[in-house]
Design brief:
heterodimer, A: MetI-like fold, B: mainly alpha, MetI-like fold, about 75% helix, globular, disordered N terminus
Chain lengths: ~270, ~300
């Protein structure tokens, strides 16, 4: 190998950075397995003296985290399924169907992409209150059911589908709905998978809006419940870490298994022009 | 975009196609209009009212107050404190995050690097984690006595720092967490930008005797400029909306409001005290500041190009 010195320092830096990135996550898992109180000793231990699952049991049995876990999974799944469908429909239409105003509407949406969502939160809360959807699952699902980013992503992908394919299907008498279901959806599969992962992670990790709209603790999602739990149990380091593991692990595993798709989506989102 | 127009005009749309198109875009557009665009417009109206707890109970108590909320906000020391904190976070945390992202992208893209995939996955992992959960983790890592960070610093002879209890250190602690959480995603985008730089440019530079540093300065960075601008703008927009980090890590803006962000102030005013008119004014000022900051960034980049 050429340039051994440069290679050595480069790898030293790479490994040091990797340790710094991963250590907090590894420590989170270690601390969640320590007996109560062990994490708060000097010097701080990194490995548990013996492994215990008591904090996980406590979370599920006494603090009802099973219900919260279910809420998170249900909401993330519903939002993902519904928004992938609506975004796919709209993205396909913007790419392939001719209708008056198409370019103008799409341009307007692109411009609105930079609007910070936080500005919408106060009126959105009042709207949801008018609709009676505070502390209802629909309060989270409805606003997540379509996104400009998702429509944009699908449109860019669908642009490459040849028009001849669709025209041939039309001549054969296929309805627009059938063309969408049997030609477009299968062809767009890769981008729809990417979009699905994005949406699932985004919904699972979201905090501000669920915090505001899910006021009843039976409807809490994991981040909201965790932030709440933190208020009362800040001293229970090990149990808080168990709660963090339960919150982080599903999305971390999902990412590790589907990494390729996720990265692809990130890149498509960044090539705007 | 321009090249699409003639193709579009070439064939007239069939009425059935137009009908189908509206059915396809309709649901998505309705959701975006109703739950995103309409609320943003309504935020402006809301900021011109005295919407408070009485109005929450009965909209009849609502009064238009013109720009009173904005006048009040400009006199509110807490608003200025939150704005200063947020700008500090954006101006210090933003560039640091982008620089670390760039360094990481250069490292994993180097031809000398073995197993770049493993490093990429490791660096990216924090980006997919739940902010509330990892902020909880970091709160313990920052503990003055039992935290691993002070323990590690102690080993190289640095006295314990009260990261989250000291007004001087609380914001740096939030910035450190944010760099850790966000650099991986930026790195992926920048690494893709690096890959698209044509190899002959480097060959030409090497023929002229350019070393590593000259190649970086004269080839890599200029060619990477558009990607870099995108990453910088997205980081800036995201960082101005700082919320969950101080909510969890420093218990909603402690110590002494030294980590109170504008978004956190909006949350407290709106959903704790139900001063929704005032909170909407806070939100709208943040909106304008973000718009101005991103416009400025893009202008500066354009001018550098010229």
């Amino acid at each position: 190998m050429k340039r051994p010195v440069a290679t050595f320092f480069l790898h030293a830096a790479l490994i040091a950075t990797a340790l710094l990135t991963i250590l907090p996550l590894v420590w989170m898992i270690m601390a969640s397995l320590m007996p109560a109180g062990e994490a708060s000793s000097e010097p701080p231990p990194f490995f548990p003296s013996h492994v215990t699952f008591e904090h996980y049991r406590e979370l599920f049995v006494r603090l009802n985290l099973g219900r919260v876990f279910f809420n998170s999974a249900l909401l993330a799944t519903s939002v993902t399924v519904l928004s992938v469908l609506l975004n796919a429909m709209a993205g396909y239409a913007f790419a392939k169907l001719r209708f008056p105003g198409r370019g103008r509407i799409f341009g307007f949406l692109l411009g609105a992409l930079v609007l910070p969502s936080q500005v919408a939160i106060l009126p959105l809360f009042l709207l949801m209150r008018q609709l009676g959807l505070i502390s209802s699952y629909w309060g989270v699902i409805l606003p997540g059911m379509a996104t400009i980013f998702g429509i944009f992503l699908v449109r860019q992908y669908a642009l490459s589908i040849p028009d001849e394919l669709l025209d041939a299907a039309r001549i054969d008498g296929a309805s627009e709905a059938r063309i969408f279901a049997e030609i477009i959806l299968p062809l767009c599969r890769p981008i729809l998978i990417t979009l699905a992962i994005f949406t699932f992670l985004g919904t699972w990790n979201d905090f501000f809006w669920p915090l505001v709209v899910l006021t009843d603790d039976s409807k809490y999602t994991l981040p909201v419940a965790l932030a709440n739990l933190f208020g009362e149990h800040v001293q229970d380091t090990e149990m808080m870490m168990a709660g963090s593991v339960l919150t982080v692990m599903p999305v971390l595993l999902l990412f590790l298994f589907l990494q390729r798709h996720y990265v692809q989506g990130l890149l498509m989102g960044s090539v705007k022009e | 975009m321009a090249s699409e127009v003639p193709a579009q005009m070439a064939r007239r749309a069939l009425p059935s196609e137009v009908r189908a198109a509206w059915l396809f875009v309709g649901p998505g557009l309705a959701i975006i209009f109703l739950f995103f665009l309409l609320p943003i417009a309504a935020a402006l109206l809301l900021s011109l009212t005295d919407f408070d707890l009485y109005a929450v109970a009965d909209w009849g108590n609502l009064r238009l107050v013109g720009f009173e909320n904005y006048a009040h906000l400009l006199r509110d020391p807490l608003f200025w404190k939150a704005m200063r904190n947020t700008v500090y976070f954006v101006l210090v945390g933003g560039p640091l995050t982008v620089v670390v992202s760039l360094a990481a992208a250069l490292m994993i893209s180097s031809r000398l690097t073995r197993f770049p995939g493993i490093f990429r996955t490791a660096y990216f992992a924090p980006a997919v984690t739940t902010l509330v959960a990892v902020a909880t983790v970091w709160r313990y890592l920052y503990h003055p006595r039992f935290g691993l960070l002070n323990h590690a610093l102690g080993m190289i002879g640095i006295a314990p720092i009260d990261w989250l209890g000291d007004t001087r250190w609380a914001m740096p602690a939030i910035i450190l967490l944010s760099i850790w959480k966000n650099f991986g995603a930026n790195m992926i985008i920048l690494a893709a930008g690096l890959q698209s730089i044509p190899e002959p440019l480097y060959e030409a530079a090497r023929l002229e005797g350019a070393g590593w540093w000259r190649q970086l300065r004269d080839v890599t960075l200029p060619m990477l400029a558009p990607t870099f601008l995108f990453v910088a703008v997205m980081t800036c927009i995201g960082y101005f909306q700082l919320f969950a980090e101080p909510f969890v890590l420093t218990r909603q803006g402690e110590p002494l409001n030294s980590t109170l962000s504008v978004a956190l102030l909006m949350y407290k005013q709106g959903f704790r005290f139900w001063h929704m008119g005032y909170a909407a004014a806070v939100a709208f000022v943040l909106f304008v500041v973000i718009l101005a900051a991103t416009t400025l960034q893009v202008r500066l980049a354009k001018r550098n190009e010229a």
